[in-house]
Amino acid sequence: VRLVESGGGLVQPGGSLRLSCAASGFTFSNYNMNWYRQAPGKERELVASITTPGGSTNYADSVKGRFTISRDNAKNTVYLQMNSLKLEDTAVYYCRAVRWSGGYWGQGTQVTVSS
Length: 115
Prior knowledge:
This protein is mainly β. Helices cover 0% and strands 54% of the residues. It is built from no helices and 11 strands. The protein has strands at 2-6, 9-11, 17-24, 32-38, 45-50, 57-59, 67-72, 77-82, 91-99, 102-105, 109-113. Strands 2, 4, 5, 6, 9, 10 and 11 form a 7-stranded mixed sheet that branches. Strand 4 (32-38) and strand 5 (45-50) form a beta hairpin.
């Protein structure tokens, strides 16, 4: 089982990034997918989630209207489009696959918002 995040990096405030999380080793379409983030000295927080098979989405209030989660079950990939990035969005971003029986974590990708 693997979840591999990519797309992180350094961006200026107001900029955009798109994170990807490629899954393998399990039936991706059977799992709800989440994006979490953890900033230095803070607890890991849920940022966005998308269900399966309906694709219903939910967002943390702090990112609502700026971030968009989506999934492509044919590519076994979940995305997080991040627009209007703020300094406080700086964190390691993790994807998680979850269902009633348990879940899996990716290794994380660093997003740094700085001028």
